[in-house]
Amino acid sequence: MLGSWRRKGGGGPMRLLNQAPPIAIDFGVASLKVLQVSAGPPLSLVAAACLPTPDELLADHAARLDFQAEALPRLAKSCGFTIRRAVCAIPAGRAYCKHLRFQSADSSSMSAMVRGSIAAQVGADQNALVYRHAEVAPGATTCVAGKTELICMAVPRDLVARLMDTIKNSRLEPVGMHSEHSAVLRSFDAIAAPAGDGPEPAAVLVLDLGAGSTKATIAHGDDIAFSRTIDLGGRHIDQALAEQADFDLAGARAERLSMRDLTTSDTRAAATESGIALLPATRSAGPEHDVSEPLDILTDEVATCLRYHRSIYPDKPVGRVIFVGGEARHHGLCMHVARALRIPAQIADPMAGVARGGSEATIGVDFKLMQPGWAMVLGLCLCPTDL
């Protein structure tokens, strides 16, 4: 079952702040996004802008960041922001994110072990990386007694410096930098709260479907229990489709977004769900193009995330999948993943809970439409300012 989670009204899922939230900046693969909201309740929109990435830069991290760094000052000026404080997300494609287990120790020893282990795994000098780590949500059981399970993240130090310089060159003051996994959860007041009646799931899987990657985050209420970046997103599915047919990347994307069913199995599942019986002669019926291969990789990777979570939290089964991210606008993609996981699923639009008067600057985005791709950006506005 795939529902639509579009909270109404201004007091809904967002965490409300006493001071004006900072401007949020997302250096995403598909686009550069900037957002400012005012403090609530209710939260209200001040300004927002979105600049799509040219197709030829989608797979080139360095050139795309150069393009966005040059464009950000103009984009920020066009919004007419009322404050200068800004936070940004660390691009998931450039960040190391992995669960690691270490012998329990004091905080300084643990930090040293994290630094040494990550630097060895990525083959980098310890001083070339910036590290963050956090113990997983309470209640985890590990296979080895005396071990502590950590979610570890590292990012190249020169990338952090580049992002900060880009923000400063836009005449903004950088006050925070966060992972995409943690930011997206800040969009919701209680991520595990059910959409309707019924018991609250012990755990919720949030799938941020992006153009360049998929971010899997499992939450127990407000606590992050699992985070992982899967290096497969909408762009990879489009590339597979382009290789099947005579499409360029833009044409493949347009074709995919027009497809209700992405595989033959989707066609049969949809027919079964609607009560239509398929005769043996129609067994091969399906879409003209089939992108099973990248979709199988994606769903297998997500299933691996669920199995790992189950191994450390056997008493906290995942009871719901929530889709966010720009690719979550493709209903057929979300339906395929939901069917493969066999877990109730919803598409979230946290921006629907942000009040709008109608006169705000909204460049390149229409918030009258569902915008799951802005969940993480809204979450950034509500993240701590820790720089």
CATH class: Alpha Beta
Report the count of strand segments: 15
Q: What's the arrangement of strands in the largest beta sheet?
A: 1-14-13-10-11-12
| Biggest sheet descriptor | 6 strands, mixed
Mean pLDDT: 86
CATH architecture: 2-Layer Sandwich
User: What order do the helices and strands follow?
Assistant: EEEEHEEHEEHEHEEEHHHHEHEEH
The helix content, as a percent range, equals 25-40%
Distance between the termini: 42 Å
As a whole number of angstroms, the C-alpha radius of gyration is 21 Å
Broad structural category: alpha/beta
Count of discrete structural domains: 1
> Mind telling me the CATH superfamily name?
ATPase, nucleotide binding domain
Q: Which spans have pLDDT < 50 for at least 5 consecutive residues?
A: 4-17, 190-195, 274-285
Total number of helices: 10
Taken as a percent bin, the fraction of beta residues is: 25-35%
**Envelope shape:** globular
CATH topology: Nucleotidyltransferase, domain 5
